[in-house]
Amino acid sequence: MTSSVPDSGLASGAVVAGEEYRLSRADLVRYAGASGDFNPLHWSPRIAAAAGLPGVIAHGTLVLGLVTRLLAGWLGDPARITEVTFRFVRPVVVPDDGVTVTLQARVAEHRPDGRLALTVVASVAGTGCVGRGRAIVRP
């Protein structure tokens, strides 16, 4: 449901971009190799359980990468993303059969310099995994 053309005249609260991304354990392994983050919380159910987690979890930076992918797709140019701030409130657990992460970006405010402040929500099965997700973009 990604909007095709950025518009600085969008009303506050307007959804500007949204998408669902499917993550698998294989995605976590590929991301670990690309990022160099081989923390076993991202691939070992035994280690994740010992750490008190409900299962293997996605890298936070992988989820943040999905956010920038969503915004860059909407904006048409990743250089238009000037700031992204996230606070994870719960991990994205990736079971053996994978998980769907839903992302949505809404206009929070129009800034005097012409940029837009966006609220970005990431959720799994309707439960939010990010608090204070915010992006500043040049439409």
UniProtKB/TrEMBL annotation:
Domain MaoC-like: from-to ranges: 19-110
InterPro entries named among the record's database cross-references: HotDog_dom_sf (IPR029069), MaoC-like_dom (IPR002539)
Top-level taxon of the source organism: Bacteria
Listed Pfam families: MaoC_dehydratas
Gene3D superfamilies: Hotdog Thioesterase
Entry similarity comment: Belongs to the enoyl-CoA hydratase/isomerase family.
PANTHER family assigned to the protein according to its UniProt record, in alphabetical order: (3R)-HYDROXYACYL-ACP DEHYDRATASE SUBUNIT HADB, 3-HYDROXYACYL-THIOESTER DEHYDRATASE HTDX-RELATED
Name of the protein this chain belongs to: Dehydratase
Organism: Jiangella aurantiaca
